[in-house]
Description:
- The chain has helices spanning 2-16, 63-70, 100-111, 129-132, 154-162, 166-171, 236-241, 271-278, 283-286, 306-313, and strands at 19-20, 42-48, 80-85, 90-94, 122-123, 148-152, 175-179, 186-187, 193-198, 209-214, 219-223, 245-249, 289-292, 317-318, 324-326.
- It is an alpha/beta fold and 327 residues long.
- The chain is globular.
Amino acid sequence: MKICLSVFCLFFFLSCSSEIEPESSDKDSLSIAADSAEEFDVFIEVLGTVQDGGSPHIGCKKNCCKELFEEPDPTRQVVCLGVIDRMDEQSFLFEATPDISRQMKKLKQDRNFGESENPDGIFLTHAHIGHYAGLVYLGKEALNAQKVPVYAMPKMKGFIEDNAPWNQLVVDSNIVLYPLQNEESQQLTTQLEVTPFLVPHRDELSETVGYLISGPEKKALFIPDINKWDIWEKDIRNEIEKVDYAFIDATFYDENELINRNMSEIPHPFIVESMALFEPLPAEEKQKVYFIHLNHSNPALDRKSEAFQTIKDNGFKVALYGQRFKL
């Protein structure tokens, strides 16, 4: 009788978990087959974790890329989240990356509804190549999509409307632009709400936003790019407390990562800086943090690395391709 009760409790615990990791992941927390995400009606799926230039990175001759040019890792895709609502049968992409072809295919496969390849909306954060350049594949030279909704802030929207080849997507009705405003929520489905918020970044061509993604039960923070936490008007620690998951900028592990670039010209919060800032947080708050948007040079991309292990030992996590999170 005790054995049966134990088995029942284990089954109940597994079926109610809010996070599902891909089978290939390191089991730093509960890890079960991704197929079990059928239990999730509304969820986030990680469709990419790498910084804009991808991995392997163009022109890179270092060990971090050398083998990947010969044997590419299909999970090394540019930062992107998929959001799926199976109840209302709608799905969304957060970012239009250079890997959009594979990311749209996976989104369609994993949502388990609809025949169209197209998402029901794409949310852009800013005008750096890894976050919007994938839109070009919706044009007539490739998919020739019809009226895919693309959500963008005013400067980002204007950049697309005023510059080729992006404006051709609008002229040809491949996409339809929907304006966003800072801190104004968008009700996407009966289950999903999205709120953009401005963050400081290198805004040469557009403003930069993060997103609060709210489901029926849980909330997620998505900030793939920001300059430094201390120049943001908000306290990231307070924002983490308000949500269940925080997918945050982890472009570089530390200041010694790039020896051929002036890292002050490409400011991001180093992972070691973020971990130090978050150190006073309770363990349950640290567990919400998923580092994402890792540069090809970032040692934490390698799950066998000392950097990856250090992040785990400090109570945080690295986002993994294929992970799913209940909303």
